């Protein structure tokens, strides 16, 4: 594609964009009375305009019906979470029965590890990537210690090669084969939060399964961003937060995937609660737990409907736009952003190194050789919201739902302005 760094050209791309109307379904913060250029949808997605209505609906039901709202609300609360499965399944490439929404991400990974990290004296190792998101490091190390094992021995990290900024699939596969029959679990981030790399989840899953291990994915930066086929790939379990690309609001509930091969097992190790009990018999208050025949068996508590409401509003947008269209726009807008970055860097003589490899989703991580936090602050003051990662990286993630090609062009103008100061 032959891009141009002009306003007319950017507007032409917006005009051709089949998803352009979605921008208007989100609320943009303002700086200097102008809507910001928002590059941090990978950290906290913007608020869908409909989110508030969905929360209000529950507040009203609560006021007017109180306890009756559990069964008689417009969207009854007792099975509110079940509304998510059909809508979330296509986002992650799953059957509806394999998907549920509950708790928060790290909590869910802990709960899923109860089922899928069952170390024995022969098979006890966990393979993960080096410098994983800190919560994953803490979570995995604490699980290992919980089983009375030593993280130094039980955790095997796949490393980047000297001088390289991304993981090589061949190195991941080799590590899995090397650990072989000692491997109890492969658990990695599907999209790396720092460099934006999309791992080859299908190949890694296959290799992990071949050793006889369980394979799970932290999809915090993958859900709503990249194509996922969790069912087809044979992934055992996965979880993701909903506040990044899923636009469900700060700290909101996490989605979970459990492959259907693990459903309907009464004897699987699992931390259980009444919301995982056979829903037809839940209120009979029986002593014996009967799991739901699907991923809902991992539910514990009654659904936090006030939190779930904005997630539902957001998922309806995913349902109407569809992941294929979002991915197509993502590819184009990220390519345009890359073009603008290189164009401007060339003009002003700056060295911006994109450390994100070609296996990428929405995010470009840019190493700012010779530029520091001053540039980051300048961008923020001029209405460009990015984030800073030590030592010298800004992450730019133009979410396909609400970022425009014109935003990318305007960003280039702000960047140029910095060097003209
Ligand atoms: C954002 C993120 C988390 C956050 O976990 P919470 O439990 O939702 O606070 C975890 N893992 C990864 C890889 C993330 O990017």
Automatic annotation (TrEMBL):
Stored Gene3D superfamilies: Aspartate Aminotransferase, domain 1, Type I PLP-dependent aspartate aminotransferase-like (Major domain)
Sample GO molecular function, one term: kynureninase activity
Keywords: Hydrolase, Pyridine nucleotide biosynthesis, Pyridoxal phosphate
Catalytic activity entry: L-kynurenine + H2O = anthranilate + L-alanine + H(+); 3-hydroxy-L-kynurenine + H2O = 3-hydroxyanthranilate + L-alanine + H(+)
Keyword Hydrolase: yes
Cofactor(s) the protein requires to work: pyridoxal 5'-phosphate
InterPro entries: Kynureninase (IPR010111), PyrdxlP-dep_Trfase (IPR015424), PyrdxlP-dep_Trfase_major (IPR015421), PyrdxlP-dep_Trfase_small (IPR015422)
Enzyme class: hydrolase
A Pfam family matched in the record: KYNU_C
EC code: 3.7.1.3
Pathway: Amino-acid degradation; L-kynurenine degradation; L-alanine and anthranilate from L-kynurenine: step 1/1; Cofactor biosynthesis; NAD(+) biosynthesis; quinolinate from L-kynurenine: step 2/3
This protein's record includes keyword Nucleotide-binding: no
Modification sites for N6-(pyridoxal phosphate)lysine: 244
Binding-site positions, pyridoxal 5'-phosphate: 105-106, 133-136, 218, 221, 243, 274, 302
Subunit structure: Homodimer.
Annotated function: Catalyzes the cleavage of L-kynurenine (L-Kyn) and L-3-hydroxykynurenine (L-3OHKyn) into anthranilic acid (AA) and 3-hydroxyanthranilic acid (3-OHAA), respectively.
PANTHER family: KYNURENINASE
Family: Belongs to the kynureninase family.
Record-given protein name: Kynureninase
Source organism of the structure: Salinimicrobium tongyeongense
